User: What shape does this take?
Amino acid sequence: MNLDALPTGRRARIIAVDWGILAPEEATRLRALGIDSGAEVEIAHRGVFAGKDPIALSVGRMTVAVRRSHARAMEVEELAEAAR
Amino acid sequence: MSGKRTAALVGNPNAGKSALFNALTGARQKIANYPGVTVERKAGRLVLPTGEPVELIDLPGSYGFDATSPDEEVTRKVIFGEFVGEAQPDVLIVVLDASNIEQHLVFAQEVLELGRPTVVALNMVDLAERDGLVIDPAALEQALGVPVIPTVAVRRRGLPELAQAIAAAEARAESDPKDHPRPHITLPERRLAANNIAKGAILSETRQHRLHARMDQVLLHPWLGPPILFALLFVIFQAVFAWATPFADALEGVVAWLSELVTQIIPAGFVQDLVVQGVLAGVGSVVVFLPQIVILFFFILVMEATGYMARAAFIMDRLMASVGLSGRSFIPLLSSFACAIPGIMATRSISDPKDRLTTILIAPLMTCSARLPVYAVIIGAFIPATTVGPGIGLQGLVLFGLYVAGIVGAMAAALVLRRSVTKGAASGFIMELPKYQLPRLSDLLIGLWQRAWVFLRRAGTIIFTVTVVLWVLLSFPKAGPGESQINASIAGKLASGVEVLVRPIGFNHEMALALVPAMAAREVAVSALATTYAIDASDEDAAASALEDRLGSRWTLPMALAFLAWFVFAPQCLSTIAVARRETNGWKWPAFMLAYLFGLAYIFAGLTFWTATALGL
Assistant: This one.
């Protein structure tokens, strides 16, 4: 499942990122913010207006806004409720 | 070692560096640009407990040394001592946000790897504790191998201890000037280490309902978020126009009083005319916008300090994306409603160069406060003060329409520019949404003072020069008997040339004449029209008080509407062009900006005139 398909409010772990389809500066910025393989994330908010873009990710103790196109480059596995 | 000692604050964006900087240096700050780049250099004086002063620099926030934005590039070069004309800081102060400790420890380790004399400020410990997170600074100190001082910049907690640690680090650096680099590790290793260090230093962590998460539930709500933002923007614009009036009137009074004073002190003649008609009238007409600019910036600073601005960018991102921009462009464009100059300067935070350039090019289309006097006079003269619905006046509606025309024009221009001259990959939007915080009054006041000072300095230099030049152009050569001074002057001759160009779109000689000095600043058009029609009048007092009546009898409605349409687009502001030149490092883009905006002004003024005439208005 890619991150964009993750329902709001569920936790998941990023297992792979297709860095090739992201611009190099954007890849650098995402990694600098800890959005990388192994990170646990949750979609906290989905955008307003049509398209539900951008999305607000909770990662670590931060909330980071990214576009859905970034989320689609990330493969995630959902974490069981008990792991929370 | 001799010479001036320097210390630099480094850290992630949102670490509270600026608040710490303000708390350490007070109002003793100097703001300038780093040579060659348009990144602000903030420096101030910090007196150490030893009595020795050091220069404290607030470096732009950065996530790491593999920089992506011009700001972060400056930070990297200064820390590495590679920035020409800037001494390598003797001591580095790494600022960590205690409430986001794992993330901030990543860059901290990268800085510590350099082996420079370093002190860590564990900032915002109160916010962390509010979130139920208690950190042991001693454990952190042991893990990092450098002094760690807990601070709360906004409450001035830990500041003497921090100054003490800076002094100690400096003393150590002096006795042992060599760097002691640590082994270089990769980003994933650093992140892993950061998590482990944090785990070892966190004393207790209770999972509380975090305040900011609850606020986001409302402020980023798909249905509530946008109305809240638009309501806030509405309040801001109301405040800008309603609250500023008494202050603007008072400033106008001061200018009038000064003119009176000068008239009495300096004997009539060239010098008196220059000071009263040139300097005071010209600079004064711009300085009266200071209250509006201060009020708008007050709201912008509050939005930034509370953390709401990033949410506004989040909400606006989708709309901006539809024209090829991102939510980051929202902040500069919002500033441009006060004045395009701070707006253009605020584009520095946009890392994508094409995005930034597009934002600079469309910023002058936002209806800045300098257009208001022009709009107000023309609307007052030609639009009847009738109502078109409950509580909706026709005049207000026209003014609103002009604002909308500017916004729509800007969006359309962005759409076209992004597909032609600033073509490139669609820009992304990656932005940290910082925690909500209560702003501190003194930080707001320092920020406001800095903005106001930049504006006044500009009024005192660029606008001063232009005004004096224009006054000379309008005053020479002296008119012969029976000839009007304005028609005889160099500016009047220029206007005749301009008139040939603008005749097809319905402009008469007086309108063409007003456009020439208005090149300096749009609002000058009003005073130019007033002067022109005043010279024609036999009774000057009556003329001055009745510019609107005079316009009503000399211009037709289509002409007036065309004049309004012209000012929606025309880039008549030398300061904006000068700032655009500085921010784009050359004349190419300001020249392009002039060409496309004058082109649009001409086309839309023409279309308005011809349509209105055809409709028989």
